[in-house]
């Protein structure tokens, strides 16, 4: 099996082959004598040249992290069966930038009206979840093009709430 | 001693109190809201009764329902934990009227200290040093006037408040009005009371608090201090005991003032007097919390006492089993508050299912947790999952031990603030105890180190990512690199809850 | 301080030492046998190297292989843990020859104390009170003669022994020969040395031991006692500190003798002097263990010290960071040794896969574990899984806390001795500290209460059994009442291992 | 679904029915208002008349136990899909009693020969596992009818090693 793994912009080509003696592994073409044991589900024990690595896989919401010892790596992976890319929810490259709900919650207050001018970082929407209010700020200086939610509305994680142009 | 006690709370503190009851041979009665049927405190208690919908106001804040359960179950006393009804004097009175012992101070003391404004007045009268500000609730106009007089920056605080809720920092006149209103509406939501007041901001203060304990026979002692300066938005994140800047003499002085404050308020049971300490080590009365604190474990570890056991014994009418001179501090303890929130994304709450939970253990490690693997964290309440505490002979060893414990800790399925603690504990200022209430905000505004360090670990991560993907089908859903189903499942779960939330608030 | 340390052990003690290294910034090197690739100590260490087949003699007892790993990995020191090579002077010398620091006493002291017979002679010379018996290894004939002289019952012990291996109680002449031979063959297997000796049995003695700690600058202190009278076949099952029958004066006396014994042997680092205490509170030297004890945590909890940190610092040449008068005991600690063995079936070992592991936590609970959920316990080694320790202000509270912790503890998939501890802790004699080394055997020979008590819990059990069956298909194999597959799987796993075992011993 | 559960000789008839509101449960014909939640796999939380029970299922080797709070019940269950009875390994009612291996291990020594007379409780076989030697004793006074294993042999749990008549 061949996988393309991207970590912090750098991409790695990982070739895996199951053999009688466990996994054969090539990283970017170079053979690595890695000894793999699946200790618990979601946890791997890797031995490579005598060094021991406890590796855990973290899947939360839209992100996948690989935790090696106490270091955490955000990974995206392309494999024969599935494809996923990781892009921050606030993405989009045109003049229009979206304000998305970072978690499920409830819209408490709208601090800016459609058409009003806002400074980058100015609070536009107040959202509440788990009894904490958080102010969502304008991603850029511009004009509030659209407000898509009303006060009191329940929203899901990732839902677009407003657009700034 | 009581035969049966009702715990009017949820999460780790409910479990903490249930454990104490179990250890003392007291039957425990849990209460739970609709979303908490599967919560840990329900299965750990001897009895458990539903008290309504998720919304706290309809369940954990519902005095009538809770007292009804207490009566039906035959509980002789109620332990309120922290938050919810713990500082609600009306609840304390209602318990008394129902002939049920409220495990805490008298309602009168709660009312006095519960209103920060009345507390200020009383403490001023008792000669306790105070921060300049208003001694009562204000209108926006009054606030603007007073702020102009004592000068910015100022703090706006909910009179009934606590835990940073309904609290806002205001750096200039323009910010005041919106902050004032947000504080009011937050206060109204959280405490059913929108009274807010204003205080001068002490720059770079430390937050140091004194644990006091009084029985119902006039004895009050202090159990040393807790250093709680590591805060984010006035929420404590890390607490320790003792404080690096408090020596024997300062401890005696602060302890004396705290005991004085408690006695002047006719205080009994466990309480905490919070102080702001400026850079010259002057301390100012901040507030008194008339309940058990979240961070009480660090005091337990350095004193060797069990505060919840003592709360129960005091409430049952026993005398304090020791005197002030018997209290000795030994070693150093640090607590990390583990929250379901994403430190890489503004600390937004991250509810959802805990698919994997690997807990630290071994020497000097204590965990007070309210969750378990497989449980779905609801988004209706405070997102604290657990408290991790490390104890060692000295502060440096306690920090090293906490770092070791954090390395062992893993929470899968939801985001947590575990990575934050590593950053804090590795910071040279924290190691040197150069901390104040602004320390964490400064740390957070600084650029975090890029995680893809050149130490070759990213190679391991890449290989592991591929291995997880390759072994996914042979394992259960959580372990494989198959985010789509998992994610969908979570989202739809959230959707349901979110809808419920929406309905509830229509 | 060392930069890198090799841990020549496995299981919970290897993990314990690895944790200490992590806390002190020392890189840890683990070694593992073929059946331990997935063991916890391998994944917790910074480095890990295979050292051969499961049989201890070919791996964990293989000095050459272990030193080879130490050299290759660049370890500056070796921590032997307990058992295996921990009391093997030859290993200590080999380390020295290889320029690697052995974390423990000098080989000379190990040799002296390691041979119980030589130790007896030396201690007798030092004026330490001794139990009547032979001061040297015996033949069967000599043993029979001596036993006749001092009278039955007598104990047969392996000169190189420890932990009850190669130890037998003989009540009459007829039993002596077979017991003698079993002891010899067990001793040969366990210690590569079949020398055994004989001692008069003190009836109903307590086993109380003193922890000593000496640096390499002539300073030796004692850290109080441990009460280890709850034993089964001379294996400690529960240990506590302090002992209920030891007061300040007796502690000073025993401590003084222990320090004297250690000094006379030129002892350094951590060690334990074991005493038998008769009903009149006279104490007799039993043996000195020249290593860290399994039960060291109870001493750590009441003294607030970390013995493994101190071992490392002492081995690195540091002076003891405190004096005898600085050592103060606070509170009470109890340890339960959790084994994979079936208390309802003669405590036969119960290896296999741990399908479920629910661990106690919260106030005053410490667990030093060597296992994890999903791991298969091999049958090649000592079946200890974990050590559960409870700490509280006094003994009664510590017992109550341990009972609470045991209620929270659950191990699924294999049998464990957890149920045994409940029986012990509920026993009035244990509560009253009326214990001696015969206490547990008496308790075990008594009729256990019938579990189907009339408290209605059996109704719940019946309903639950049906519910598990009904919900089985929707869950994973372990949770449903579908024993056949699970059982078969385990048996076949055992078969494989058992065959390996067979082959190994051909 | 109907199950017959036997605990300590007493047998219970449990009727279960899945309804919209969870499980309907009858014990020996009487309706029980039990509220069931599967907290974790192998763990149930039961509420019955306000009392809370954390129930765990223990399957080890040949036994199934149900643990309610801190009480442990050996159960055998007859259900539509499977049947199992629980009988102690040393069972058998005739004059012949077997000595079975209680765990996998290795036969270290035979202390009695075929045909020799033994007292009840007299050691017949020494088996070793996990480096502990254990003596298997004669279940009754009589004559060793058969010795089925040889010294040094590896044996499985439950395997019959000898018979005493």
Mean pLDDT of chain A: 82
Q: How much helical structure, as a percent, in the residues of chain A?
A: under 10%
Order of secondary-structure elements of chain A: EEEEEEEEEEEEEEEEE
Alpha-beta content class of chain A: mainly beta
Main sheet summary of chain A: 9 strands, antiparallel
Structure report:
- The complex is a heterotetramer, with two copies of chain A (about 160 residues) and two copies of chain B (about 500 residues).
- In chain A, about 0% of the residues lie in helices and about 60% in strands.
- Chain A is mostly beta strands and about 160 residues long.
- The termini of chain A are far apart.
- Chain A is elongated and about 65 Å long.
- A nine-stranded antiparallel beta sheet of chain A has the order 4-3-2-1-9-8-7-6-5, with no helix packed on it.
- Chain A has no helices and 17 strands.
- About 10% of the residues of chain A have low confidence.
- The C terminus of chain B is likely disordered.
- Chain B has 17 helices and 22 strands.
- The longest helix of chain B has 23 residues.
- Chain B has an eight-stranded antiparallel beta sheet with strand order 13-12-9-10-11-14-21-19, with helices on both faces. A five-stranded parallel beta sheet of chain B has the order 3-2-1-4-5, with helices on both faces.
- Chain B is of the alpha+beta class and about 500 residues long.
- At the A-B interface, strand 1, strand 2, strand 3, strand 5 and strand 6 of A face helix 8, strand 16, helix 16 and helix 17 of B.
């Amino acid at each position: 099996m061949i996988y393309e793994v991207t970590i912090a912009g750098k991409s790695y080509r990982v070739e895996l082959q199951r053999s009688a003696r466990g996994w054969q592994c090539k990283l970017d073409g170079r053979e690595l004598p890695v000894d793999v044991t699946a200790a618990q589900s979601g946890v791997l024990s890797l031995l490579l040249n005598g060094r021991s690595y406890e590796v855990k896989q973290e899947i939360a919401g839209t992100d996948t992290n690989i935790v090696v010892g106490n270091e955490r790596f955000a990974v995206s992976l392309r494999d024969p069966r599935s494809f996923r890319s990781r892009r921050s929810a606030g993405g989009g490259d045109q003049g229009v930038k979206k304000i998305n709900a970072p978690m499920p919650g409830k819209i408490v207050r709208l601090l800016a009206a459609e058409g009003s001018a806002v400074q980058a970082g100015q609070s536009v929407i107040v959202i509440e979840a788990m009894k904490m209010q958080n102010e969502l700020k304008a991603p850029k200086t511009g004009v509030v093009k659209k407000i898509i939610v009303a006060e009191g509305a329940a929203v899901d994680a990732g839902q677009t709430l407003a657009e700034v142009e | 001693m009581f035969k049966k006690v009702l715990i009017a709370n949820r999460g780790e503190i409910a479990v903490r109190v249930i454990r104490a009851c179990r250890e003392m041979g007291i039957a425990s009665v849990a209460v739970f809201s609709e979303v908490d049927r599967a919560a840990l405190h329900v299965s750990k208690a001897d009895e458990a009764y539903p008290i309504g919908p998720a919304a706290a106001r309809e369940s954990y804040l519902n005095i009538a329902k809770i007292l009804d359960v207490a009566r039906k179950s035959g509980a002789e006393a109620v332990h309120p934990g922290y938050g919810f009804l713990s500082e609600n004097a009306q609840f304390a009175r209602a318990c008394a009227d129902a002939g049920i012992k409220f495990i805490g101070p008298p309602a009168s003391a709660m009312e006095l200290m519960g209103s920060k404004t009345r507390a200020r007045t009383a403490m001023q009268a008792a000669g306790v040093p105070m921060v300049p500000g208003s001694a009562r609730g204000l209108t926006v106009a009054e606030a603007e006037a007073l702020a102009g007089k004592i000068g910015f920056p100022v703090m706006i605080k909910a009179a009934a408040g606590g835990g940073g809720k309904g609290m806002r920092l205001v750096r200039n006149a323009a910010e005041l009005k919106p902050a004032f209103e947000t504080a009011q509406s937050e206060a109204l939501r959280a405490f059913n009371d929108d009274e807010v007041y204003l205080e001068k901001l002490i720059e770079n203060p430390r937050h140091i608090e004194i644990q006091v304990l009084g029985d119902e026979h006039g004895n009050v002692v202090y159990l040393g201090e807790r250093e709680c300066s590591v805060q984010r938005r006035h929420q404590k994140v890390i607490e320790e005991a003792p404080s690096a800047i408090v020596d024997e003499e300062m401890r005696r002085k602060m302890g004396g003032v705290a005991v004085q404050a408690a006695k002047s308020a006719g205080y009994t049971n466990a309480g905490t007097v919070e102080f702001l300490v400026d850079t010259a080590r002057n301390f100012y009365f901040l507030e008194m919390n008339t309940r058990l604190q979240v961070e009480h474990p660090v005091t337990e570890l350095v004193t060797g006492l069990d505060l919840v056991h003592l709360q129960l014994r005091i409430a049952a009418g026993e005398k304090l089993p020791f005197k002030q001179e018997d209290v000795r501090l030994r070693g150093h303890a640090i607590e990390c508050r583990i929250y379901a929130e994403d430190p890489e994304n503004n600390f937004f709450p991250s509810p959802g299912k805990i698919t994997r939970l690997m807990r630290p253990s071994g020497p000097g490690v204590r965990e007070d947790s309210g969750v378990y693997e497989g449980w779905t964290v609801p988004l209706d309440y405070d997102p604290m999952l657990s408290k991790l505490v490390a104890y060692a002979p000295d502060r440096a060893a306690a920090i090293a031990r906490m770092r070791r414990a954090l390395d062992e800790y893993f929470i899968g399925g939801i985001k947590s603030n575990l990575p934050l603690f590593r950053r804090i504990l590795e910071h040279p200022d924290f190691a040197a105890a150069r901390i104040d209430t602004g320390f964490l905000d400064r740390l957070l505004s600084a650029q975090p180190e890029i995680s893809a360090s050149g130490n070759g670990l990213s190679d391991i991560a890449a290989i592991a990512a591929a291995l997880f993907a390759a072994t996914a089908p042979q394992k259960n859903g959580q372990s494989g690199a198959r985010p789509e189903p998992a994610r969908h499942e979570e989202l739809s779960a959230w959707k349901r809850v979110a809808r419920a939330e929406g309905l509830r608030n229509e």
